[in-house]
């Protein structure tokens, strides 16, 4: 990135900055009948820059230079003409950023965050929110189509507020050579920290802590011993976790005073090799809420999910509630259903599905998550009995998944895997199909790969939705419902002849 904004040397392939038409070197002979055009006296009527053709999946503008080479331009929108500066050259494409906007798009807006362009997050702030969401819908359809998966309808959109939605964040801490303290998020494609004083996407209870936290770290005796800070919002209030690399008694007391001043739950994760979590304030029973079957579309009827720092928790509470409600709507008639929930976490889907009458077996790779899920099922069964059995299992092993399918014989399967997807699960489903599969994904590329395997093994895609979990970014979550015609009669309780 050291050459950002600088003119690159002339190359025969694509000329200056990879954007202008090929020109002969200065002093070279000009063929008869051709105008003598040079960098210094280019024709005034020749259009400058490149025109952005569309957005790539990651939100960058896509164009082609005069030599036909693909160009990915950060911060550019479809239809715009930009003067782009190439900052990385590859064999098949170049990467660039906007040096000057020559013709703008009507969908370009002023980014709402003062840190846009420096902070590495929220890279689509220059695009109007409705256009961001249309782009995400198109990305999902395109990635599925590339794998030969047809979509039955336009995806359903699950979306909430475009600001103040993020309920968890991790802040980097760095102390410079002269003792200056930096606290914030990483710059784009860099390990450098950008000092953040205000974050428009954080929930207000966390956003107001950014400036006080910067002052707090700067006041410590040993700020270099702070690895990072984590902020969480819960029903019990804001939580601050301090990653302390080396114990420091004086700074421990300073953090306690800070927590008291700002009414925070304070956790201390100390040690380099095997850090241990310690609550410096009284240990809270942290929880968040999700809809139950009776409250999927109403204010009443909620379940509580207990969690601890380090547990996976969806960042956008409002959109997560919509995803749970959508699962309950799509998987209708769950009374008595045998349901297998894979990558179940603390029970985000398991408990709501059980509240609809399903007999749920929830499987997680982490023993800690299994214990937490068991506790959550027990706590939410006081008023309404929930049939949930939590198990630990390696879901990246197809044989383990096949054994689960054979033992439980589910008529419905829900999976919510990490970014790597669920290759082993889909392999097992191809051999032992389940009538209905609801796939919740945080990575559309691995989802498309796994969807293709399911479709090619006999499943058909019947419903899909895009969840705009992270507004102002190119990241998208999605939900796909698959049904297997040959096994559907088993779910309905019919015999092969009936």
Automatic annotation (TrEMBL):
Single Gene Ontology BP term?
A: methylation
Report residue spans for region: Disordered.
Answer: 1-45
Task: Name the UniProt key words of this record, in alphabetical order.
Answer: 4Fe-4S, Iron, Iron-sulfur, Metal-binding, Methyltransferase, rRNA processing, S-adenosyl-L-methionine, Transferase
EC number(s) from the headed UniProt entry = 2.1.1.190
| Enzyme kind, highest EC tier | transferase
Q: Which reaction does it catalyse?
A: uridine(1939) in 23S rRNA + S-adenosyl-L-methionine = 5-methyluridine(1939) in 23S rRNA + S-adenosyl-L-homocysteine + H(+)
- Annotated catalytic residues: 442 (nucleophile), 442
Regions of biased composition (Basic residues) lie at: 1-11
Q: Where is the TRAM domain?
A: 41-100
Keyword Secreted part of the UniProt annotation = no
- Residues involved in S-adenosyl-L-methionine binding: 314, 343, 348, 364, 394, 416
InterPro entries xref list: 23S_rRNA_MeTrfase_RlmD, MeTrfase_TrmA_AS, NA-bd_OB-fold, SAM-dependent_MTases_sf, TRAM_dom, U5_MeTrfase_fam
Q: What does this protein do?
A: Catalyzes the formation of 5-methyl-uridine at position 1939 (m5U1939) in 23S rRNA.
Protein name (Swiss-Prot/TrEMBL): 23S rRNA (uracil(1939)-C(5))-methyltransferase RlmD
Organism equals: Halomonas tibetensis
């Amino acid at each position: 990135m050291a050459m950002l904004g600088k003119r690159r040397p002339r190359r025969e392939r694509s000329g200056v900055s990879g954007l202008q038409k090929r020109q002969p070197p200065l002093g070279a002979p000009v063929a008869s009948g051709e105008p003598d055009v040079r960098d210094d006296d280019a024709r005034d009527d020749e259009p400058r820059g490149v025109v952005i053709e569309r957005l790539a999946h990651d939100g960058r503008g896509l164009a082609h230079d005069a030599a036909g080479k693909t160009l990915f331009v950060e911060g550019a929108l479809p239809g715009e003409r930009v003067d782009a500066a190439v900052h990385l050259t590859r064999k098949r494409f170049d990467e660039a950023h906007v040096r000057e906007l020559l013709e703008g798009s009507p969908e370009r807006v002023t980014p709402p965050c003062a840190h846009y362009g420096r902070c590495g997050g929220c890279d689509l702030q220059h695009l109007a929110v409705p256009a961001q969401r249309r782009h995400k819908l198109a990305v999902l359809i395109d990635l599925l189509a590339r794998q030969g998966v047809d979509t039955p309808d336009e995806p359903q959109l699950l979306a909430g507020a475009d600001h103040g939605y993020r309920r968890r964040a991790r802040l980097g801490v760095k102390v410079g050579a002269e003792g200056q303290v930096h606290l914030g998020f990483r710059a784009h494609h860099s390990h450098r920290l950008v000092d953040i004083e205000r974050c428009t996407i954080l929930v207000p209870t966390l956003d107001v802590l950014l400036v006080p936290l910067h002052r707090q770290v700067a006041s410590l005796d040993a700020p270099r011993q702070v690895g990072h800070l984590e902020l969480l919002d819960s029903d019990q209030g804001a939580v601050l976790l301090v990653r302390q690399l080396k114990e420091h008694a004086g700074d421990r007391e300073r953090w306690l005073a800070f927590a008291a001043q700002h009414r925070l739950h304070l956790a201390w994760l100390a040690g380099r090799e095997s850090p241990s979590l310690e609550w410096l304030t009284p240990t809270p029973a942290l929880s968040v809420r999700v809809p139950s079957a009776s409250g999927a579309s109403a204010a009443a009827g909620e379940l509580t999910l207990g969690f601890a720092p380090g547990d996976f928790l969806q960042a956008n509470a409002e959109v997560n509630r919509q995803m749970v409600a959508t699962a309950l709507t799509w998987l209708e008639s769950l009374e008595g259903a045998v349901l297998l929930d894979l990558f179940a976490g603390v029970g985000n889907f398991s408990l709501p599905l059980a509240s609809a009458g399903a007999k749920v077996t929830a499987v997680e790779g982490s023993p800690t998550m299994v214990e937490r899920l068991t506790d959550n099922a027990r706590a939410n069964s006081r008023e309404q009995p929930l049939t949930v059995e939590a198990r630990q299992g390696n879901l990246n092993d197809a044989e383990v998944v096949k054994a689960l399918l054979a033992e439980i014989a589910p008529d419905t399967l829900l999976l919510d895997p990490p970014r790597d997807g669920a290759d082993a699960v889909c392999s097992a489903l191809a051999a032992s199909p389940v009538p209905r599969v609801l796939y919740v994904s945080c990575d559309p590329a691995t989802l498309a790969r796994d969807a293709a395997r399911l479709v090619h093994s006999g499943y058909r895609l019947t419903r899909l939705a895009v969840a705009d979990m992270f507004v102002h970014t190119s990241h998208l979550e999605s939900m796909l419902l698959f049904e297997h015609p040959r096994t559907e009669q088993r779910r309905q309780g019919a015999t092969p002849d009936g």
